[in-house]
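Sample pair:
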Amino acid sequence: RWHDALLHLTDFYNQDQKSLDADGPGTLTMTNSAMNACARARRWDWALHLLRCLQHGVVGDCRPDLISFSTALSACGAASEWQLALVLLSELVRDEDKPGQLPAPDVILCNSAISACEKGRQWRRRH
């Protein structure tokens, strides 16, 4: 199903580019939904790819929100990719000096990173 979600997302992007507002809230919602489908299928690589597309402006002017990062962190955790989860969290912590660029980490994001460490049996890991 994650593959179907990516196909639907591609169709949505193509339609958005032709006739709709590519920067509208529906674009971020569709991207987050596709990321969630990838996360549930343990395709952390695709969830992370979609997050990076949002970060680098590949998807119009949409930028990742807390849901985007939480989904990516959860995807990494489900696949025991705890190191990537910590990288994502550290990006958000470092970015706190530049307000408005990335969302500030919240309790849910921190818990997602802790969960990723637990699933990777890195419960002693401290950052």
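The chain is about 65% helix and 0% strand.
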